[in-house]
Amino acid sequence: MPPTEGLPGAPELLNGLKDVLYRNRFDALLLFDIDHFQQVNKTHGRDLGDEVLKAVAGFLKENKWLGYRIGSDEFGVIFSGGNDVSVDVLASLPEYIADKTGVSITLSGGGIQHPGTEFGLDAATAEVLFSSTQHLLTQAKKWGRDRVLWLTEPLSEDVDLSDIALRFYKDLAQVNAALAKEMAVESRTDFLTGLYNRRGFEDVYARMVKRAQRSERPLALLYMDSDSLKTINDTHGHDAGDRFIVDLARILSELLRGNDLVSRWGADEFAAVVENPTREKALSIAERLHLAIAERTAGTMSIAMFYGVPTSPEEALKMADDALYRIKGRGKNDIELVE
């Protein structure tokens, strides 16, 4: 039995977020995970690792928070009811876990408090909130872990969230402008992972191809497909499958640079673009991703990569897709480069 079976997953978080926004009771959204959790499992064993996860669930329930488990070691909390949420709200969790399990851990997280009534938060902005909070969590891990970044916290020399803040408020403005005109907004963000979806990817990717053509500098297009999602869904259920997808997205976001393009292309497909790498660097990135996914998740990934200056966006995608098909035909869990 999963140690956090009582906690709902990512789809329920979206519904819960929409509900508190609809009822105008949203205070804050917080996403966090346990730093180096795979190392905890290796050092102390999976049974004790499960006890750590169980302790997190117990902490959330004891505080009567709306808690969710959205990744293997990633959790979400929706705060509602008109109460102030401290940026140090998780400060006592590591000590709580140590008392319950004897394991010392640190946490990384990202949070967004209600920005004010003038920004017009409602159920339509749920995905914007989640995506921006995911970006904060990813940034916290890139900046050394063991920190929780809040969008509203004062900026300091080592904490500059201006890019994330700009994107958050710009997305809010776009949603609200569309609602004001009674127009439907087609999201460019995948809710579960916070990455671009296929539509969002295609818009940015087309511009990256044009830049590569103008500068005659190569790009690397990585087209990736999980080998394991169906097995995980069939064996452990769709909540476990969702957590697996979140874990894949987090690894991609951590290992690629901030200006690289990363997207969830389909159910278990991802696409990424790295601008102006050397051929050796591009291969190294693919190999690091391949190894990290095998070591840090319950599955594996097939990775096809186009390298060069595409004659068109479609050409590079077609060549990468054909390479991925060949990988699947010879047994999956491999890397193939096409030029």
Précis, in short:
With 339 residues, this protein is α+β, with helices and mostly antiparallel strands. The protein has helices spanning 10-22, 37-44, 46-62, 93-101, 126-142, 162-180, 198-215, 229-236, 238-255, 279-296, 313-329; strands at residues 26-34, 66-69, 74-80, 107-113, 148-150, 219-226, 261-264, 269-275, 301-308, 335-338.
Write the layout of secondary structure elements.
Layout: H1 10-22, E1 26-34, H2 37-44, H3 46-62, E2 66-69, E3 74-80, H4 93-101, E4 107-113, H5 126-142, E5 148-150, H6 162-180, H7 198-215, E6 219-226, H8 229-236, H9 238-255, E7 261-264, E8 269-275, H10 279-296, E9 301-308, H11 313-329, E10 335-338
Helix pairs in contact: 2-3, 3-4, 5-6, 8-9, 9-10
Characterise this structure.
The structure is a single chain. The chain is an alpha+beta fold. The protein folds into two domains: 10-180, 2-Layer Sandwich (Alpha-Beta Plaits), CATH 3.30.70.270; 198-338, Reverse transcriptase/Diguanylate cyclase domain (Alpha-Beta Plaits). It contains eleven helices and ten strands. It has helices at residues 10-22, 37-44, 46-62, 93-101, 126-142, 162-180, 198-215, 229-236, 238-255, 279-296, 313-329, and strands at residues 26-34, 66-69, 74-80, 107-113, 148-150, 219-226, 261-264, 269-275, 301-308, 335-338. The protein has a five-stranded mixed sheet with strand order 2-3-1-4-5, with helices on both faces. It has a five-stranded mixed sheet with strand order 7-8-6-9-10, sandwiched between helices. A hairpin with a 4-residue loop joins strand 2 (66-69) and strand 3 (74-80). Helix 3 crosses helix 4 (93-101). It is globular, with a radius of gyration of 20 Å. The termini are far apart.
